[in-house]
Amino acid sequence: MSKNKELLKKDDIVQAVLIADDFSEEFDLVTKNTPFVLLPLVNKPILDYTLEFLASGGVDETFIFCCTHSDAIKEYISNAKKTAIWANVMDVHILISESCTSLGDCLRDIYAKGVIRGNFVLVEPGVISNMKLLPILQEHIATLKKDKGATMTLVMQETGLEQNGLCSMEETLIVTNDTKQVLLHRRLANYEENKIKLPLEMFLEHAEVKIWYNPRDTHISICGPNVLPLFADNFDYQTRWDFIRGIMMVDEVDDSTIYCHVLSDGQMGAAITSWDMYQSISWEVIAGWFYPITFKTQAPITFGKSIVKGEKCLVSSTATLVNCILGDNVKIGEDVSLKNSIVFSNVKVDQASEIYNCIIGKDSILSSKSKLKNKIYCDSQEVDRVPLPKICADPFDGFETSDSEDESYTTSPVPDDTKMFFSEVMDSLERGIEDKLQCHNLILEINSSRYAYNVSLKEVNYFVCKAILSLPFQLQDGSQYLQALSRCLAYFSPILKNYIRDDDSMNDCLQAVQDVAIANNELSSCIVKVLNWLYDKDFLSEDVISSWFSNLDNSVSIYSKVVPFVKWLQEAEEETSDDEDD
Q1: Beta carbons within 10 angstroms of residue 18's beta carbon
Q2: Number of compact structural domains in the chain
Q3: What pTM was estimated for this model as a whole?
Q4: CA–CA dist 276, 39 (Å, integer)
Q5: How confident is the model over 553-581, as pLDDT tens digits?
Q6: For every residue of 490-552, which 3-state class applies, written as one string?
Q7: Alpha helices for 264-385 (secondary structure H)
Q8: Strands (DSSP E) along 304-405, which ranges?
Q9: What are the φ and ψ backbone dihedral angles of 548, each rounded to 5 degrees?
């Protein structure tokens, strides 16, 4: 038993309430015959992610509240209990009420049933997380002892400016004090004024005030015993936001308080509240942000172009796929262009079709030369998918190679981001070679770090190559630099192959070789051997090496050392040309 579990009373059972319906029209087109929580997220039902999170977080008993498609959910849970890991550690019950039309109605019905015995975890639909629930629950219980009016602890995710995976409709400003009590909670999406005034008393009455701009709402809340009675007494509380606003603004409940816990240290939480969030979270799952909560795939990921395939997929060799997730039994015809899209199971896309930034529902058939852009398509119907402003629009943007991407190697939106990215890549590679980790797992870590620090593809190529060249200096195995570097190059060849794919990435690699060699005599003395190895393994081409050398300053220390190698390349090329002429 964990230390946090021991802190709870022996007769306390950690309970959770999971609302299965989203009560919006966002997903109506694809949920006519399928429950929202059973929609696939990277080829695994959303419900699986949520239950796995709750079980691993220490929840003993979960109540799934269904308003629609209850039979499908009951059947799924019944079958999953035979094999699911969560079934061994957590009891799952299903509550049904077809008359409920909001989260508030569901909670009032649960209160009437009397199944919740105290504090509980409220989980809204579409949640995925790897957070440790028990410490947050224990923190909430400790707060209740000090503040009898404490009702709810909101769980938020710390984020960076303009980070992907944020919904502009949930843009929020939260102010807390040193006890994490929420002093102000303001939704900014529909806020009419362009300024928010913070009372001076807020700063005078509290020793510490923290202002959180736009943390990601995980849609997970730790609720006290008084939450359900408050919903029961206030029928105008239809959503959790209604509840928060009521507690924060209405005088009649001014003895009640709300607290906020902000996740950090690798703990993640998110909820699928829109198609844009669905697509963003899909990429975060692929990148490993929610590890150890992860997806299942029968086919390997094509890392270079971010493609995940389900079982029994048939893709034509002439089709172009970039940043795509394919469900089971998907058939992609000849000359199809499929980019930034998610395709559910049993879909057929006929030849010469062009699909961009779309969600294609289950069992759909797209005839030849179909053209869809920014659409949700299902049952021969389509609706426009209007991208949300800025951060939620096209969450895959920035992960696709662009010919126009000409950022410098050290340019980044935040000055220290590239340094932090380089440091994390170094840590991943060092751990990878010492623990003999598979390179495809390391690529996931690198892509995850790229996403976290918002670095460009050019910077990723450069710093990955620089890290491999620099790693021998950190390996304390007593070997000489060249010997250690040879080991690194051989071991990390799959990583180099993943990132060095065209002339631009070759130039990024050569820039890294040049910079490390100029700064370190160890590489400078063996630079020709390194260049020859990269050339021999087809990571560098003759033309790119020659072009790089022609722009190399002849005053730098490595220039004279590289001259014989470049001359040999040129002579070999001339001899090859002569042989072809003969």
Answers
A1: 24
A2: 3
A3: 0.66
A4: 15
A5: 888 888 999 999 988 888 876 666 555 55
A6: HHCHHHHHHHCCCHHHHHHHHHHHHHHHHHCHHHHHCHHHHHHHHHHCCCCCHHHHHHHHHCC
A7: 275-286
A8: 307-309, 314-315, 320-326, 331-332, 337-343, 348-349, 354-356, 359-360, 365-366, 371-373, 375-378, 381-384
A9: -60, -45
| Three-state SS letters, 191-254 | CCCCCCCCCHHHHHCCCCEEEEECCEEEEEEEECCCHHHHHHHCCCCCCHHHHHHHHHHCHHHC
Give the gyration radius of the chain's Cα atoms: 27
**Residue the block writes with tokens 């490390």:** 516
Q: Is 284 a member of any domain?
A: no
Beta carbons within 10 angstroms of residue 71's beta carbon: 11
The structure tokens listed for 374 are: 């920014």
Distance CA 561, CA 549 (A): 11
Peptide bond into 35 cis (omega under 30): no
Pair (305, 267) in one structural domain? no
* 577 vs 581: CA distance, rounded Å: 6
| Same domain as 366, residue 438 | no
Residue matched to tokens 């090859």: 576
Task: Provide the token pair at 207.
Answer: 């020793």
CATH of residue 504's domain is 1.25.40.180
Q: Which domain holds residue 303?
A: 297-392
pLDDT at 303: 44
Q: For residue 279, which of 215, 329, 324 has the smallest C-alpha distance?
A: 324
